[in-house]
Structures are given as C-alpha cells and as structure tokens.
UniProtKB/TrEMBL annotation:
Keywords: Oxidoreductase
GO molecular function annotations of the record: arsenate reductase (glutaredoxin) activity
Gene3D superfamilies: Glutaredoxin (3.40.30.10)
This protein's encoding gene: arsC
SUPFAM superfamilies associated with the record: Thioredoxin-like
Similarity field: Belongs to the ArsC family.
Domain of life of the source: Bacteria
Keyword Plastid (UniProt): no
Keyword Magnesium: no
One Pfam family from the record: ArsC
Xref: InterPro entries: Arsenate_reductase, Arsenate_reductase-like, Thioredoxin-like_sf
Protein name according to UniProt: Arsenate reductase
The organism of origin for this protein: Streptomyces gardneri
C-alpha cells in the first residue's frame, strides 16, 4: 500500500502515539494482532503542524477542545479550561496543540477511508480497522 500524509489523496492508516502511553501501546498491540498495515507517528517528536491538526480535526469531526488533554500541567499553566470554546477561539486552541503536543489526546488513528478516531478503547481501534480503504 502507498502511504499518504494527511494532505495526500492516497490514504494509509497512521497512528499518532506517545510510546509512554498504555492506551497507545494497547492500540498498537491490537493493530499488530489484526495484521494492520499502518505507520506510527510519535507526535511528541514529529509534531503535527496547525494545518495537520486542522485536517485531523476535520477527519474526526471534532473541535480542538474535544481532543485537548486539559489535565496536563501545561494545560493548567496556559489556563485552557477557561478558554472560550467557539469558532472565534478555534485557532488559539489549534496553535496550543501544535505548540504543546502533549495536549493532544492519544492515540489518534487516521483510517484508510479518510476518517479518523481517537482510539482510547479496543472498540475505537476496531472501528478504524473496519473502515474500507479510500
């Protein structure tokens, strides 16, 4: 399979992980057990750009505050819990995620049909696996 980055027309499955995260490790174990063809992105090292975050949000059908880890120390420092959750502040949230990738909920799987899921459960990982190639 040809792997495509988020902006490409050929989709490949990609999973954004933090190797220290148990839910990420569980998702990888399940993908491997199912023989999935995927690319790993260690998003704390290979930080997504604001444009990539926007694309993933579009694929998830979510807003940036929906995938923000508000309990992280940096979230508390920034005061994100107090930020307005509206269109006028959307870019502020996206810039915070790009500038502080620890704030991004994980793991995120971009599925082959062009959608994405926050894969914090076995069911969510299986959902991503069940989507047809795009």
């Amino acid at each position: 399979m040809v792997e495509g980055r988020l902006g490409g027309t050929v989709w490949g499955m990609e999973i954004w992980i933090n190797p220290a995260c148990s839910k990420c490790r569980s998702a990888l174990t399940l993908l491997d057990a199912e023989g999935a063809d995927y690319t790993v992105r260690r998003y704390l090292e290979d930080v997504p750009s604001p444009a990539e975050i926007r694309q993933v949000l579009d694929r998830l059908g979510l807003e940036p505050w929906d995938i923000t880890r508000t309990q992280e120390a940096v979230a508390k420092e920034l005061g994100v819990k107090e930020w307005p959750r509206d269109e006028a502040n959307r870019d502020r949230w996206i810039e915070a995620l790009a500038g502080h990738p620890k704030l991004i909920q994980r793991p995120i799987i971009t599925a082959e049909d062009g959608t994405a899921v926050v894969a914090r459960s076995e069911e969510a990982v299986r959902d991503a696996l069940s989507r047809p190639a795009g």
